[in-house]
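Incident log, support desk, overnight shift.

02:14 A customer reports that sequence design results differ from what the structure should imply. Their input is reproduced verbatim below. On-call engineer (initials T.W.) acknowledged and began investigating.
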């Protein structure tokens, strides 16, 4: 199944074992969430909040997918 959002296509597919993958699901309250699971089957990132509709959850997936090597990394470990 393919979903179209703006000019970006998301293809829903089964992932092979050991693949990095996003999952979109409904939580116990009926809200949509996403999670990114690593090759070791551990959650690397999640939506952090529930969304009332699937399109908003997918927008979060697109945002994470669009991160590039130019995305800033801020070091907040240094003493103030």
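02:41 Re-run completed on a clean worker. Output:
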């Amino acid at each position: 199944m393919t979903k179209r959002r703006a000019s970006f296509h998301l293809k829903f597919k089964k992932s092979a074992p050991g693949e990095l993958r996003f999952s979109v699901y409904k939580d116990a309250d009926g809200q949509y969430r996403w999670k990114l699971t690593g090759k070791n089957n551990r959650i690397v990132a999640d939506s952090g909040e529930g969304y009332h509709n699937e399109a908003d959850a997918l927008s979060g997936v697109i945002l994470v997918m669009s991160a590039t090597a130019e995305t800033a990394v801020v070091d907040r470990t240094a003493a103030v």
